[in-house]
Amino acid sequence: MSLIDRVEVLVTAPGRNFVTVRLTTSDGLTGLGDATLNGRELAVVAYIRDHLGPALIGKDPARIEDLWQYLFKGAYWRRGPVTMTAIAGIDTALWDIKGKVAGLPVYQLLGGRSRSGVMVYPHASGETEAELFDEIERYLDQGYRAVRAQCGVPGLETAYGVGHGGRYEPANGKLPAEEIWSSEAYLDFAPRYLRKVRERFGFGFHLLHDVHNRLSPIEAARFGKAVEECALFWIEDPTPAENQESFRLIRQHTTTPLAVGETLTSIWDVRQLIVEQLIDYVRTTVTHVGGLTHLRRIFDLAALYQVRTGSHGASDLSPVSLAAAVHLDLTTPNFGIQEYMGYPPETDEVFHTGISLRDGYLDVAEEPGLGVEYDDAAAVRFPYNPKYLPVARRLDGSIHDW
Ligand code: KDG
Ligand code: MG
């Protein structure tokens, strides 16, 4: 019988930091999983290297479900981003191995295709409206069917989601940078530029917007109402979701669809949002909810309540994460949309994938497993580069949700 022989945690920074789990079996098969937690990478590395990894040696890699329960339920200390990201790296690598053993792509193991491609949305952003409009135009010209729009807010030097001269990358400081936030300025400006986007480009594509937890429930309700005429695909993270019941208030006031989940790490964190139909899209991602084993459970719960999926897919999730997401998206009946920012060329030097993009839809190559190769020789050329996400302060200097 083939057993888990080796557990490696690989850290590389080809464009940005990524943590990758590589499992090797006694008959020489390898599986990859993404375990990147932006700005907290080494906490996950230590958790796998010092705690989970040693317990996996000699275990049967075919028993994915039992290993998941062993790492989650068996651990006593459970949930939370570090734990769930570590479990995700291992779980995803086990699915990769199972696919290789079966000689089948992972989406076949999950039930086969429900669709021919995975609709994605890229990020259009600008410090000014003119820059934002240029980016939207560029994406629409490339055939994307959905675009997320974020614009700098006049009077605020930085705004969430806006790149400064290039790709948007929020993790940018050796220590957390401090950004200034004003909900009043944002609430005044954002509905106006979103309306202009529709006036200029029409309604023939899906328009998305990320509020990034910046509003209170009643402010979010007002925002949702103010943008109803824009027919948004969703507003994302309108308010922090620790108080899941606070979404009732937003729901009572607006028909703008709501999406939540990128920082939530288990089915328990989204249970109420789903079963009370307080959201329309659940955005949990394979890398931060314990891997495919747990994510598909969340998606199945969501299906019972007409909640669709829209997994987080920022470029601080590695191509291994994207591949796993696309395999699951292909099979999920209640799939909605997948976030996709693409990667810089350095990232593609380390992670070789057969993922293709056509007419705004992603697909995977028909390789066994996840279809991703990790290039060790390239990876060592990009050593770990510690970076933090910023913090946000209100105009009076007090800390706000970032
Ligand atoms: O690591 C944090 C980023 O992934 C996050 O800020 C990006 O909100 C985000 C998104 O929707 O892509
Ligand atoms: Mg977001």
Can you put this structure into words, describing what you see?
- It is globular and about 65 Å long.
- Helix 9 (267-275) packs parallel to helix 10 (292-304).
- A hairpin with a 4-residue loop joins strand 2 (18-25) and strand 3.
- The longest helix has 22 residues, at 81-102.
- The chain has helices at 41-56, 64-72, 81-102, 106-109, 129-141, 183-201, 217-226, 247-253, 267-275, 292-304, 319-331, 345-350, 376-379, and strands spanning 4-12, 18-25, 30-34, 118-121, 123-126, 146-151, 178-181, 206-210, 234-236, 258-260, 281-282, 308-309, 338-339, 351-353, 356-358, 361-363, 372-374, 391-394, 399-400.
- The chain is an alpha/beta fold.
- 2-keto-3-deoxygluconate (KDG) is lined by residues 38, 170, 210, 212, 262, 312, 314, 316, 339, 389.
Chemical compounds bound to the protein:
2-keto-3-deoxygluconate, magnesium ion
Q: Main β-sheet: number of strands, strand sense, barrel status? A: 7 strands, parallel
CATH-wise, what's the superfamily of the largest domain?
A: Enolase-like C-terminal domain
Tally of alpha and pi helices? 13
- Spans of 5+ residues with little confidence (pLDDT < 50)? none
- CATH architecture tag of the largest domain: Alpha-Beta Barrel
CATH topology of the largest domain: TIM Barrel
Any idea of the CATH class of the largest domain? Alpha Beta
Helix content: 25-40%
How many E-type strands?
19
Tell me the Rg in angstroms. 20 Å
Main β-sheet, spatial strand arrangement: 5-6-8-9-10-11-12
Approximate strand percentage: 15-25%
SSE-based structural type = alpha/beta
Number of separate structural domains: 2
Overall mean confidence score, pLDDT = 97
